[in-house]
Amino acid sequence: MAIARQVLCVCAFLSLPHAGAEPIRYSVAEEAESGSLVGKLAEDAGLTPAQLSARRARLVSDDGRQHFRLDRASGRLVVAGRLDREELCGQAASCMLPFELLLAEPLQFFRVEVALEDINDHSPLFPEERVRFDIPERSDPGSRFPLEGLGTSILAATASRHTASLLRMSISVSPMGLGVETKVS
């Protein structure tokens, strides 16, 4: 029982520097190339690159996977390999990759969180390459002419990856030509 109490006290003691400390936060686009800069981790932790080397800095994640690499010489945090948001977080609204920056002598650690930003890499599908329709000459200004099937296909393709989004297309006529406006909400 005494050993369990000692282990508990050591764990509580080691957690003190971490308690209440705000994590260092970054964001990176999914599928960023290996070696892409995420942030200046040494600087943001209030350390120098020399301290990172002297204190044998390393990154430790809960799941044991190394998504990022620390360049001890420069203090930069970089992408270690391809990051696929859907693979790592599924359809979750946000995708956070947490880990610790661990330093030795004296023992110190910083919580780091990297938000993996979604890129729109899923193009909408169109039923036809071109859609033709006629606008009568006697049409009133402000008249609307639906593009049958087009909006449904775009909405379906968009909704398959982003369930909370809505895509609207509007076409406006001016003396200078035809304008197309697309809004995602």
TrEMBL record:
GO cellular component: plasma membrane
Listed InterPro entries: Cadherin-like_dom (IPR002126), Cadherin-like_sf (IPR015919), Cadherin_CS (IPR020894), Cadherin_N (IPR013164), Protocadherin/Cadherin-CA (IPR050174)
Origin: domain of life: Eukaryota
One Pfam family named in its UniProt record: Cadherin_2
Lineage, highest ranks first: Eukaryota, Metazoa, Chordata, Craniata, Vertebrata
Keyword Zinc-finger found: no
Subcellular location: Membrane
Topology relative to the membrane: Single-pass membrane protein
Naturally occurring in which organism (per UniProt): Hirundo rustica rustica
Cadherin domain: residues covered: 20-126
Full protein name: Cadherin domain-containing protein
Biological process annotations from GO: homophilic cell adhesion via plasma membrane adhesion molecules
Main location: membrane
GO MF, one annotated term: calcium ion binding
Annotated signal peptide: 1-21
Keywords: Calcium, Cell adhesion, Glycoprotein, Membrane, Repeat, Signal, Transmembrane, Transmembrane helix
